[in-house]
Amino acid sequence: MGFYERRIFPHILDAAMRGMNDLRAETLALARGDVLEIGFGTGLNLKYYPDTVGSLSALDPMDALEEVVEKRIEAAGFPVERHALPADRHLPYDDARFDTVAVTWTLCTIPDPVAALLEMRRVLKPEGQMLFVEHGRSDDDAVARWQDRLNPIQKVIGCGCNLNRAIDAVIEKSGFRLQHLERFEREKTPRILGSMYRGVAGH
Fold this sequence. Notes:
Helix content: 25-40%
Radius of gyration: 16 Å
Distance between the termini: 35 Å
Low-confidence stretches: none
């Protein structure tokens, strides 16, 4: 992990993603029980989980802004266990371990999102739900073409973030069944970044 990815990008990411905080509470409203969060980042989701959450296991290969993250964990109303692990390899959990899996603005960056989703599905209880909100490929062909053109640049400055993944297709390819999907354009956001996918998936 280079200097930019370790020391600079986390500050950029934290500042940028605070601008999405208004979408977190609604996305995470159905979270309950033992939760696995993929792509913990700097812990911005913590204060938006409902009181139905009993514990949180958080995975993210990025391990930065430690003082900020620790303060956010201390303020959480439930125990938080962190692992600096990639999501697209075997997860260190038994089958059907979690009631909820939460994924927020993460599937765009995981190198092999289908492999990661297969693991999420494995560790999710049969009656459990995966809650997600992501940016991805636009339904507007003209915007999507620009996403394709600019994606190589975005992957560098965004440390692996892709502009043009069709999130619903990726989720369904892993065997998850979409129970609810909302598509919308994020206001005051460039359209190449503002095409949002939010919803719930299950077995």
